[in-house]
Amino acid sequence: MRVAIDARAAAAATRTGVGSYTRELVRRLPVVDPHSTYVAWRFEDAAAGSEPAEPPASNLIDRPTPAPAEWLKGLVLRLGVPRIEWLVRFDLLFAPNFVPPPTRRPFVVTVHDLAFRLFPETAAPATHRWLERLDAAVRRARAVIVPSEQTRRDLAQAYPGADGRVTVIPLAVDAEVYRPSSPAAVASARARLGIDGPYLLSLTGIEPRKNLETTIRAFAAIPDDVRPRLVMAGPVAPWNPGAWDRIRPVLDGLPSDVRDRVVIPGFVSETDKVALLTDAAALVYPSLYEGFGLPVLEAMACGVPVLTSNVSALPETAGDAALLVDPLDVGEVAHGMARLLTDETLRERLRSAGRARARVFDWNDTARRTAEVLHEAAGGRSGA
Q1: Which percentage of the chain shows pLDDT scores above 70?
Q2: Tens-place pLDDT, residues 162-221
Q3: Who's near 99: CB < 8 A, 6+ residues apart?
Q4: How is the beta sheet containing 92-95 ordered, strand by strand?
C-alpha cells in the first residue's frame, strides 16, 4: 500500500496541535507499518523557507511541491486544482487536517473538532469558507478519524450518515520530549523570554474559543498576595488573525500593576515550551471547546498541575488528573487558579495523577491504530 500524507501542517513554521499530530504520524506510521510506503506531501515555498516534514526513513518519501503556498492555496479554493494525484502517486490519501487537498482518489480524513459549527462566532470568515468543504470530505471519505468520544458524538449529530465510518483514536504525548527540563534549560528560556518569578502558564494559539479573555480576567481576580505572573505563550492562529482584537481591550483595561504581570512571548519553540511547562506553577487552559486538548497532556507529562474546563472533550482527556472548572464562570476559574497556587496537597496530587494519566497515551499506539484504519480503507468503499 502506498499512502500519501498531507504533511503541510507538520511543516508549518508555527506548528499548532494539528501540526504536532501530523508530524508525529509522519514520523511513526512508517515505523509501525514497515511494509507500506508513506509519501509526505507538502508545499516547498522558497519565500517561506519551509523544511521537510521529517528526514526520510526507508519507507518514507518526502515529496515537496515547489510553489508559493498562498498562490497555490488560492487555486485550490477557487478552482479545486491541482488535484494531489497530479503531483504524487498513491493508493490512498490520508488527510490529517480536516479537509483533504483536491482529489478524486480514495482518502481518509481526521476531524479534530466541530468548533466551527458549534461556536461559529469564534471562527473567522476564511475558516468558514475553508471548512465548508468538510461536508463533502466527510461524505466522500472511506473513513473518518476523530480524537475523542466527544468529537465522535458531535460529528454524528452534524453528519448522521458518517457514523459507521468513524473511529476514535486519541492523540498522545512524546514522553522523550515532554519531561521536566534541566535547570539550565529553564533558566535559559526564562532569560530569553523575559520571565522572572513564579508564573501561571497559558499555552495555546490565540483564537476566540480558547477563552483567553476569561483567563485574563480570572488572573486579575486572584488575591494580590498570591498573584504571580501570567505567561500567555502561543501564536495568533493563522486562520483567525483578528483574534487579538478581542483580547487587547481586556489587557488594556487591567490595573497597571496587574497588566505588568502579564508576559506575552508569542510563539515559542518546543524546547522553550517544555522549559516553560517545567517551571510553571500550573497550566491554565479554560477553553470553551476542544476536540481533545493536547496541551493538557503535555503539561501532565512535565509534572505540572493543570486547570482546565469541565466541558467538551477536556474531562475525557484529563480524567481525574486535573482541576476542572466552568470556563464561563470567571470567579470559578479565579478560585481554581488560587487553589493551585496555595494548596500544596492538591498540587502534589495533580502532579502524580497527571504523570500517570499522560502515560496512558502513546503516539506509537495512535500510529498503529491509524495504520489499521488506513489498511481497512484501502480495501473499502467510500460513503458517497
Answers
A1: 87
A2: 888 999 999 999 999 999 999 999 999 999 999 999 999 999 988 888 999 999 999 999
A3: 109, 130, 131, 133, 134, 137
A4: 60-66, 37-44, 2-6, 92-95, 107-110, 143-146, 166-168
Give Cα 268 to chain centroid, integer Å: 14
User: What is the grid cell recorded at 260?
Assistant: 505588568
- Digit-coded pLDDT (tens) for 267-322: 899 999 999 999 999 999 999 999 999 999 999 999 999 999 999 999 999 999 99
Beta bridge partners of 186: none
Rounded Cα distance, 273 and 339, in Å: 24
Long-range Cβ contacts of 12-16 (<8 Å, 24+ apart) = 12/238, 13/48, 13/50, 14/235, 14/238, 14/267, 16/205, 16/235, 16/237
Query: What's the chain look like in SS3?
Result: CEEEEECCHHHCCCCCHHHHHHHHHHHHHHHHCCCCEEEEEEEECCCCCCCCCCCCCCCEEEEEEECCHHHHHHHHHHHCCCCHHHCCCCCEEEECCCCCCCCCCCEEEECCCCHHHHCHHHCCHHHHHHHCCHHHHHHHCCEEEECCHHHHHHHHHHCHHHHHHEEECCCCCCCCCCCCCCHHHHHHHHHHHCCCCCEEEEECCECHHHCHHHHHHHHHHCCCCCCCEEEEECCECCCCCCCHHHHHHHHHCCCHHHHCCEEEEECCCHHHHHHHHHHCCEEEECCCCCCCCHHHHHHHHCCCCEEEECCCCHHHHHCCCCEEECCCCHHHHHHHHHHHHHCHHHHHHHHHHHHHHHHCCCHHHHHHHHHHHHHHHHCCCCCC
Report which residue type is found at 372: E
Closest by Cα among 186, 178, 171 to 303? 178
Looking at 34-48, 130-144, 210-224, which range is the least confident one?
A: 34-48
Buried/exposed code over 54-64 (b: 16+ C-beta within 10 A; e: otherwise): beebebbbbbb
CB 69 within 8 A of CB 33: no
Q: How many CA atoms lie within 13 A of 79 on its CB side?
A: 8
